[in-house]
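Q: Convert this sequence to structure tokens.
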Amino acid sequence: MSDTYRKDVALIDGGLVTMQLMLVARAHGYDTNPIGGYDKERIAEAFGMDKGRYAPIMLVSIGKADDHGYPSMRLPVDRVVEWK
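A:
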């Protein structure tokens, strides 16, 4: 497998694992937040990751909220999607 293909597979699989982790955390009463904008080199170093074998994909913060969040204002699906 090429490096590009392996990276693509890792990103997809990592995203699916992250989604499931977040759903399970929520089912147990925890709040989560995915974090994509971070210095991947420094994170790998901070966690002592073997850079030849592992690559950070996403950070997820998990905890209990101190306060309720703000309501979400979402458009109805029929206003943003066209079915043909």
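The first strand starts at residue 31 and ends at 35.
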